[in-house]
């Protein structure tokens, strides 16, 4: 069997989507996130603080420009990420499908992780 490859599961969600769920569904979603974190293929990840806490940094003409807020004004925002180890893209897709945001109106983008 080939060595596992790392994939980033990049989670885009509508802000507050979990808060809008009935308590039972919200608890089930949290349980699904915990179960994914306990999967042996899970290598790390984090939930990000609300988009209002974002700071953007650009360098233009040798000057550092800092702006408050997200890079783009969109309905869905980057809410978190998971780093997983999977044999192939099909296995990474199976893991991404377990992310509650994927079934609750968001999307999970999968990207192979390169080495620096």
TrEMBL record:
Transmembrane segments: none annotated. It comes from Nonomuraea monospora. Belongs to the YciI family. Residues 5-113 form the YCII-related domain. This is YciI family protein. Pfam families: YCII. The lineage of its organism: Bacteria, Bacillati, Actinomycetota, Actinomycetes, Streptosporangiales. Signal peptide: none annotated. It comes from the Bacteria.
